[in-house]
């Protein structure tokens, strides 16, 4: 709908640039009387925050979240929850060189062409820093999803699916000033059957939008995903049996979603992160006055942004599921 | 937003089941004074319609579109355009057998669990028949996209990327009562730079939602897509030069979108279609009373639904681009 | 949101012009398993339809509604309900004279200036005929509002509050080719406490939008309304007591809404209808080529459109309440 | 849509309670390259803020606005603008008495019944303090409305239309611990013809929603408003002539809006504010445990809230017009 709002009933609106005074978001539609505190949200942000290992951005941020509204005496009130995170370490000097040059593979070019102006300090609005807000919103979404667990993990870094190879590969990438892509998988267990809706509000369509909206993601698949194109119908269709009086499926090629609606099986989503465009190799580019030039990006960046994408992907899945759970309750809640 | 409405400014709302009297949609937000007639829309529907070759569903439908409102003396009036397509050949008798049984891989199970009721004749609302409405809406969207061409094609059927092998492969599939998956690619050329928006309204997120919302699609990727995970930053980042006084890119791994905003390069989208679940092999399943049973689906179906997905994917891309073009004009139109 | 869609969870999208082949709407978000038939909706349309007494438009319309989707074996399926009403008596010849001239007080001028084109036959989209769709949608909304009654009535015609004077006043108006305004009041009884929300989604704001959106309405008030400006706080504030273990109010100046949320008292809404601009007295106007001229409107019109506004106002109130009931259930349903 | 978001393209989302640490809003959809600073917004807030004369609340608030995002080097960037206003003087002790009792005429009762919890300090979210955010958002909306002036004024206090009587009347009201209602009129001059849309997005419907959504407003009318019910069609319909080559109207009973679309005449809106429910007279009420009791509200309140409603009503009108201007540009901008 709006450029910075996501969701229908459970919805957040984010704001803030990487080098402004703060970032944050407003989370609306939260049911009342849920236990909520800054202490509950903080650990989710701590997982995402930079500077924790040598293979992620060395930017130092406390990422301390403050709740400014919507909570009274430790409980949600049903009114909008304003979350606020101060930017501490925004060393703008690092970015002076890219003020007028466009970094290949980065949003510099498109922002400038669209708006005619951009906050060039560290990517401004297009910085992955904005995703801290989504992680905080996702923590609140989880409160609505009782009995649902959502967990993500990196399954591939560059060409390597074996995690034993990752550390040495990343050391090499980091030292050479290069960057690597990654595949991330998120699984939601315990999702009730019936979330989603036909046609324009398919649960998988909402998930695809949520994941493709994460910085650096270039592909999203659910269940068998692109691999489903290789299968025959007999193999791909998940057969159904009864166990302990309940339906269960003999496989999960559907990734937990059929016809846009959750089946009750695990929801399995995978996404591809491109390698970050901030690299030390000089790249051919132009400046905003259409002069050809070269650029080297010297900021503190992640050699593999996909690794830090895990908590963001988890948060986005929680947000989509919480929104659809509320919507399902509205339309079909009397049946259950 | 709503379960059957897609888009913000250019938006359509679809209705109708595969075996009801008719299907259709309401297209809202169309600028006035565009030339529009039934004769203009019909060819787009003719491409999608079934029964044209032996390797698609043999259902016979005229798919004749009627415009019921929003057009006066051959021009759009700016008011909602109601499109109406009668269902001619809805032989319900074919579906009696699946009244109480859930077809594995189909939406039967989830609809029943969500709503407690479903129109079991031919999939009802989950039938691919609904996509005829989207194709018609897409034809109108193209009117807004002057200078933009949108073309899709099948690039893979089952495991075969070489189109010379497709016909014999599909014959084999069809005769054995099985089904095959496919990969479809859609390319939009001539898209202006600047469409889309950061964070919640990224153009790629909207495209991902649109494509994943097409029946049987299980994966979506843009530009290098999942392949981007394998590349280093130097390779993946598209370098920029000037030619004839204009920026151009030395490659297009971004698929025409950076930071959620169009670059002016070709927008390249690929999606994976699963094999249809309607197959002649008996499959283990349950009925709605939780009894274990088997099912064989005998209806007239597509051995490879991906093939008929091409015009739908083209339509959805047109709809997303038209919507974002109008939105861009609203916010940034004074600059251009 | 969109120009022709109203509501968030329970929502309708209308289409059609007064002199096209048909009008209709798509109603989305309806819970499944409600009993719904054409026979149930028809009586609501019969009340609204023209040609029934001498003091309303003499246009003859069967206003026969058809349900094209979303209902299966007499029950709603949870998918969009397409309602279809054919236009029978659209004698376009009556309107030739106003093709190029703007009727003062009518939407001719603004449509032409906005869109550069308009369907001049009978007002096209701005015709009160479109309200038949809303009445049909309102009938469906009532199914969701179990235990709620919604009834409207005319309380004033022209300057006359005493209904005994209305018939002779209207005869005089009609014979002189003039028109009269009216006040309509709608009361909803049995509305549960808690519908609505603070700030942007106040229940009274939604009602105001719904009512002001009815053709010819120029003012809306709730409870004491404009009269509240004359009162002191002691008088206006409704005191609360307990009766039979339940809260009740000693008065209802609030009209059933406090802080944007329903109190459980009767919701009382009043609105002012202007006199229709279609009158036989020659009026000064211009044509679309900016020539000064005069106009007399000879079509079949209502001397007092407010009278036919009653079922429309009832329908709109039902739609707003149904939407907010579903939304309340989503956010706070676990509490009740 | 969401409970705390208003508008489609130009939209704000507000957050914050009267006695929390701060209030604020996020304004989205603002075109880029507009001059914007805290110094520009502040004067609009200064007009609204309390404690300035003896006849308004004596709460002392600096109401100093901070811009936290969306502005770079003095210009809007097209990304969301976060506005932040600290709460300075939130003396919670005044409110201890009403912790469990419901003030008649106030939102206490409905909030508690809806949410089962409320921030009882000063009304929490239902406090008029929230309107500071709307005033700030309105200041930004004005930047989009070049050539449009929007001015409001009180036209009636209690029963008094003559402003000479107001001061003594209010002194009497204040000293007696009572409160008075008021009528406010807002006029927008210079609005271009063509804003708004038929049926669900009528400009007058949006204005009605915006105004009825202001705290304490119980009625809204446009142009002749409720008075239109008394007129005949000849009198009410504004005749049209040409002057200096341009259309002009001989009267403005329509209040600048016909068929939901602006005519280019002055847009004239009036609204009724009820007397505040915070009065010194003991009133019958109940507590949250359903005990009958009495209450006297001792906080620092406005004897006539309508007076402070003027800048809020101006802001809301600016917001509606800015939103519709952008929407009109999107759909019909190529024509103008």
Describe it for me?
4 copies of one chain form a homotetramer. Chain A has 336 residues and is α+β, with helices and mostly antiparallel strands. In chain A, 25% of the residues lie in helices and 23% in strands. The first copy, chain A, has helices at 38-48, 108-115, 131-144, 166-175, 203-212, 233-236, 305-332; strands at 5-6, 11-16, 22-28, 65-67, 71-72, 75-76, 81-86, 149-157, 182-189, 217-222, 240-243, 246-249, 257-258, 261-262, 267-273, 283-286, 292-295. In chain A, the strands form 6 sheets. A 5-stranded antiparallel β-sheet of chain A has the order 1-2-3-7-4, with helices on one face. Chain A has a 4-stranded antiparallel β-sheet with strand order 8-9-15-10. A two-stranded antiparallel ribbon of chain A has the order 5-6. The first copy, chain A, is globular, with a radius of gyration of 21 Å. The two termini of chain A are 30 Å apart. The model of chain A has no long low-confidence stretch (mean pLDDT 91). At the B-C interface, β2, β3 and β6 of B face β2, β3 and β6 of C. β10 of chain A pairs antiparallel with β10 of chain B, so a sheet runs across the interface.
């Amino acid at each position: 709908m709006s450029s910075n709002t996501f969701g229908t009933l459970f919805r957040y609106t984010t704001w803030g640039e990487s080098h402004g005074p703060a970032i944050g978001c407003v989370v609306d539609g939260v049911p009342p009387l849920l236990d909520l505190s800054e202490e509950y949200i903080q650990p989710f942000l701590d997982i995402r925050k930079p500077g924790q290992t040598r293979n992620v951005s060395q930017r130092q941020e406390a990422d301390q979240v403050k709740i400014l509204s919507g909570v009274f005496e430790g409980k949600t009130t049903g009114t909008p929850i304003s979350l606020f995170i101060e930017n501490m370490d925004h060393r703008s000097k690092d970015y002076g060189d890219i003020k007028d040059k466009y970094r290949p593979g980065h949003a510099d070019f498109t922002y400038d062409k669209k708006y005619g102006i951009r906050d060039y300090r560290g990517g401004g609005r297009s910085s992955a820093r904005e995703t801290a807000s989504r992680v905080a919103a996702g923590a609140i979404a989880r409160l609505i999803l009782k009995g649902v667990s959502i967990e993500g993990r990196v399954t591939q870094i560059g060409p390597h699916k074996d995690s034993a190879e990752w550390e040495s590969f990343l050391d090499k990438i980091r030292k050479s000033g290069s960057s690597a892509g990654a595949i991330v998988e998120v699984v939601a267990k315990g999702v009730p059957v019936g979330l989603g809706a036909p046609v324009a509000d398919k649960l998988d369509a909402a998930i695809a939008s949520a994941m493709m909206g994460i910085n650096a993601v270039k592909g999203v698949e659910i269940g068998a995903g692109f691999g489903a194109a290789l299968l025959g119908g007999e193999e791909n269709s998940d057969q159904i049996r009864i166990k302990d009086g309940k339906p269960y499926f003999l496989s999960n090629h559907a990734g937990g979603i059929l016809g846009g609606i959750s089946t009750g099986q695990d929801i399995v989503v995978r996404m591809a992160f491109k390698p970050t465009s901030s690299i030390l190799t000089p790249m051919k580019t132009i400046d905003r006055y259409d002069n050809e030039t070269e650029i080297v990006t010297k900021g503190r960046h992640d050699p593999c942004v996909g690794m830090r994408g895990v908590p963001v992907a988890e948060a986005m899945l929680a947000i989509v599921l919480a929104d659809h759970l509320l919507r399902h309750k509205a339309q079909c809640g009397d049946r259950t």
